[in-house]
Amino acid sequence: MNSRQIFLAFLLLLIVQFGFSQSDRKTSIVFENVTHIDALLQLEKKIDFVFYFDEAWFGDTLISKTFTGATKEEIIYGILEDTPINYTIIDRNIILTKNNNIREELPLNYFSEDDTKTEVISEVTEDAITAPVLQKQYTTHYNELDSRVYSIGKENDQALKNKYTISGNVEDFNTGKGIENLSVYVKDKNVNTTTDANGYYSLELPSGFHILETSSLSHGKIQKQIIVYGDGTFSFDLNENLEQLEEVLIQSNRDENIKRVVSGVTKIDVESIKTIPLVLGERDILKVATTMPGVKSAGEGALGYNVRGGKADQNLILFDDAVIYNPSHFFGVFSAINPFISGNVEIYKGTIPSEFGGRLSSVIDISTKDINKNEFSGEGSIGPVTANLAIETPIVKGKSALMIGGRATYSDWILNQLKDKSIKNSNASFYDAALKYEHKINDNNNIQATAYFSKDEFSISSDSIYSYGNLIGSIKWDHKFNEKNSLETQFATSQYSYNILYDGAFNTNFDYGYTINESQLKLKAKYNLNKKHKIEYGLSSKLYKIQPGSIEPLGAESVIRQESIGKEKGLESALFISDLFEVNDKLSFDLGLRFSTYLSLGPKDQNYYDPSLPISEETITETKQYNNNEVIQTYGGPEFRFSGRYFLDDNLSLKAGYSTTIQYSHLLSTNTTASPVDSWKLSDPNLKPEKAQQVSIGLFKNFENSDYEISLESYYKKMKNLLDFKTGAELVLNNNIETELLTGEGKAYGVEFLLRKSLGRLNGWLGYSYSRTLIKLDSEFLTNQVNGGEYYAANQDRPHDLNLVTNYRITERYSVSFNFNYQSGRPVTYPIGKYEFTGTENVLYSDRNKFRVPDYFRLDVGLNIEGNHKNEKLAHSFINISIYNVLGRNNPYSVFFVNEGGQIEAYQSSIFSVPIPTITYNFKF
C-alpha cells in the first residue's frame, strides 16, 4: 500500500469516526409548555436530523421536560413517552410511525393469495408473542361493525408480553356521562368485563386484531374493530336506545344479577316501569320496589317501607346523596320522588356498601337521570289527579345542561265526590319541584348540583290544617387524577318539617311545628390497584340539628301557652374502606369496613336517672346543663360489610354476605305505620344507638339462551336497642321523652324467591318472600316488660308476601299489564274482655300483637296504547288506562275499637275499597 492509499484510508477512518461521534453526541435542551410537534421541531434544529410525521397524530397536550447531556434517542423517547408514537432512524432521517414499528422483513406468506389470510390481521397469540402486529387490507363481513379500525398502544420489540391492558370510558353521547354496568367483551373470545359507576372498563388482550362489543338494553349493541399493539386507552360513546316501550325490566344489564359480588341488591330502571298499573295512574318508583322480595309497604296509604323486617325509620333514602326523611305524598298514596327526573334506583337490603351508614336495614339510593347536553328535550304526563313535567336544556352544548321538573295535584274534586261528609269537606294537595345542573369541565372534572322541594297540605276536618315538606340540596365534584385514581367530593343538606294549625272552638287555637336538619360532607376516593383489586375509601361527617317541637297560641284570644322543647344536636362521622377483590375467574369478594363515631352535643339540659330503678320523672337524680357544642355522650364502633360470590358454572353463582350496622337517630311513633307528624330523636346518655348484624346466602341463576332468571336468597338478622313505647305513651311536647320509651332486642329471618323474564312479548316477574320479625321487650323491672319478656310479632311482621307483575305486548303499539299482590295481615292487639276496678269499667286487652288484621290482596290491570313510531314527530306519546283494585277488595288499613253504650265495637278502615279507574296521557319530546 503506497502513501496515497494510506492517506485516503486514514481520511476515511476520520470521516467515519467523526460521523459516529456526531451520532453519539450528547445534547442539552429544555421544553417549557410546548406541544409535541414544537418539541420535535426544536430538537430537529438542534441535532440537524430531519423528522417525518403526520401532525394529525398529535393533540394539543403540552409537555415540560429538561434534558442535560442526553443522546438524541433519549430525548426522542422522552418526547414520545406518553404517546402511541414509535420512531426509526435511517441515515439522518427520523421516521415516526403511529403504534407500530418499521420492519426490515415481512413474515412468511404475507403476500399469500389465500383470501382468508388477506382479509384478516396477523395476530400475536400467547404461543407466538414475538411475531409482529401487521395490518393488511381486508373487507369486513359484520353489519354492526364500525368501518374504522382503531389502533391502541405502542409496539415495543424490547418488552413483548403475552397480554396488554386496554382501558377507557364509555359515555352516553347525549349526556357525556359514563354508562354504568355496560357489558364490554371480545367477539368469539371468553374475555369480558362490566363498566363501573363512571363508565370505566379494563380488559387484558393479546396483541393483534380484535372485535370489541358492548351490550346493554338501554344503549343497544355496537362493535368496534381494534388492533392492540401495547397497553393503551380506548374510550368511545354510545347513543341511547329509546325503543323500550313494552318492557317492564328491573335490571338493565343481563348478567349483573349473577356477576355482582354484593349480595341483597335490587336495581330498578325507572324508564322500564311505566307500563305497570298503579293507583291513579302515577308512575311510582318506590311502589314498584315493594313488589320485589324483601321490600314491603307499611300498609296501603301508609308512609314508609319495611326492608327485611326493619322499621320504616331504618331505611336510608337518598336522592342525589341527600337524605329524604319523608318519601311520600298524599297520605302515602304517592311517593315524593318525581319519576320523570329520576334515573336509577339501587336498594341495598343485604350487605350495605361501607360508604353508607346511619341506618339499620337498608339504603335506597336514588339518582337523577343524566341530562341531555346536546338538545332540548322533555317528558310529562297528565292524569286524573296529578300533572307532571320535566324539561332538559343545554346551556353550553356538550358541556353543561339544566333539568327542571315539577309535579302538582288537583285532587280536591275527588274528595268532593265522596258521600262521607267528614271526608267530603276535607282537602289534600301536594307539589314538588326539582332543579339539577351538570357541567363537564373537561374529561377529568365534572360538577353536579341538585335542589329539591316538596310540600303536602291536608285537612281532614275543618278546624285543622296539616302540612309537611322536604327541602334538600346537594353538590358533587368528580375529579379523575388518572386511569387508576379518582375523587368524589359531596356536600348535602336536608330538612324535614311539619306544622299543625288548629283553629277551633273554646279559644284553644294553636300553631305547632317540628323541624329536623342535617348537613353532610363526604370524600370518596377510588383506586384501581390492578385487575384484582378495586379499592374505595374515604370519610364523612354529618351534623344533626332537631327542634323537637314548639307550640304557640294562634290569635290574641287563645288560651294556649307558648312552649318549646329543648333543641338537640349531634355529630356523626365515619372512615370507610372497601376492596373488590377478584381472587380468580370464579371467586370474588367485596370486603368493607366502616368505623363510625357519634357525639351528642350541647346546648342541652340532660337528665340522669337512678340505674337501680325504672326511668321515670320520679327517679331523676341530676339534670346537668351542657354548653353549645359541649360533648354530652360518645358512641361508636366498627361496622363490617363482607360479601362474596362464587361461580358454580357460567350461569349460576352462589353469594353470601355478613354485615353490621349502627343507627344513631330514631323515629318516635306509636302508630303501627309511619305518620307525617312523627318525630325523630337522637341518641343520648339515656338512649343508646340501635345495632344489627345480618348474614345472608343465595343462589342466582340465568338460563342459557333464554331471558329467564331465578334467585333464591335467605337471611337472618339480630338487632338490639330497638325502641318501643309504653302503653298510652305521650310523645308530643314531652321534655322527658325517655320516660315513655322501652328498649329491647329483635330478630328477623326469611327466604326470598324471584323468577323474572326480561324480554319478549310476555315479560315481568314473580316474587315471593316468607319472613318473620320478632321483638322482645324484657327488663328486670316488671313495668318495662311486654308480653312477659318473651318474643312477639313486631308491627311490621307480615310472613307471606306474593307479587306477580306481567306485561304482554299484543302488537307493537298495544300491551296489557297485570299486577297482583298478596300479604299476610299486620299484627294487632284486640280487647278480649272487661273488668271493674274501683267502680270504673276497664277494657282488658290481649298480649301485644297477638292477633292479625285480615289478609291483604289486590289485582290491578292496565292497557297501554302507544302513538305511532314515526321519527319526525313533535312528541312521542302513550296512553295508560288502568284499574287499581279491579276486584273491589275492602283491604283493611287499620282496625280500631270504640266503647259504645258499654259495648266494645270493632271497626275497620280502608283506603281504596272500590275499583279506581284511571287514564293517563304520557308524552316525550
Largest sheet: 22 strands, antiparallel, barrel
The Rg value, from CA coordinates, equals: 34 Å
Q: What is the name of the CATH topology of the largest domain?
A: Maltoporin, Chain A
- The mean pLDDT is 82
Helix/strand class: mainly beta
Shape: elongated
Number of domains: 3
Q: Counting H and I runs of at least 4 residues, what is the number of helices?
A: 8
Low-confidence spans = 13-23, 113-131, 135-144, 242-252
- Helicity level, as a percent range? under 10%
Name the CATH superfamily classification of the largest domain: TonB-dependent receptor, beta-barrel domain
Under the CATH scheme, which class of the largest domain?
Mainly Beta
- Tell me the distance between the termini: 94 Å
Structure, described:
Its main location: membrane. Residues 281-358 form the TonB-dependent receptor plug domain. InterPro entries: Beta-barrel_TonB, Beta-barrel_TonB_sf, CarboxyPept-like_regulatory, Plug_dom, Plug_dom_sf, TonB-dep_rcpt-like. The protein is mainly beta and 925 residues long. The protein has three domains: 3-98, Phage tail protein beta-alpha-beta fold, CATH 3.55.50.30; 115-238, Carboxypeptidase-like, regulatory domain (Immunoglobulin-like); 256-924, Maltoporin, Chain A. It has a 22-stranded antiparallel barrel. A five-stranded mixed sheet has the order 6-12-11-8-9, with no helix packed on it. A five-stranded mixed sheet has the order 15-22-23-18-19. A hairpin with a 2-residue loop joins strand 50 and strand 51 (840-845). Helix 2 (36-47) runs antiparallel to helix 3 (72-80). It is elongated, with a radius of gyration of 34 Å.
